[in-house]
Amino acid sequence: SLATGIAYEKKGANSTGTVRNYGNDPTEKITTHIRYHYLTVPAMVQMTLGRNVQFFVRTGISGGFLLRQTFVTESFDDQPKSTFNNTDNNNRFDIGLSTGIGGKVPLSERFSFHVELRDHWGLSNISKAPVINDGTVKPHSITLLLGLTYRPAIKSKKKIYSPVK
Length: 165
What we know:
Blueprint: E1 2-4, E2 7-20, E3 26-49, E4 54-73, E5 82-85, E6 93-106, E7 111-122, E8 140-150
Antiparallel strand pairs: 1-3, 2-3, 3-4, 4-5, 4-6, 6-7, 7-8
């Protein structure tokens, strides 16, 4: 079967460096949080095992649209905490490979609970700016998904015919 959806994902990394004075002496450590905010849409093929309790494996592609990218720098020396919007220095679209493994447990006739561990590997360089050593920036995320599924009742449109006497 085919599995798809839309999700908001917050991806990121932390970078720690050393602040130096004019004499090049280290004064203190500084931490910067790099945050990416994405809307993602996966399209994955799914293989399911089981009837009542189901286990599944998914694999396919995923497209992501960058909503915003920021650098958040913690306060250091006499500098306050700061946030810098860096969205314009990134490509807005990312494409990648996604895989997932999970399970679904029925709670009633209409509701079921599901859990999935999904891995996304970005294939495209999202940085418009040069990267040190001719490198690239490719997002990678591991996501734990928890969900509740509702299956609506489908009314039958069958007409019952009786023979005319």
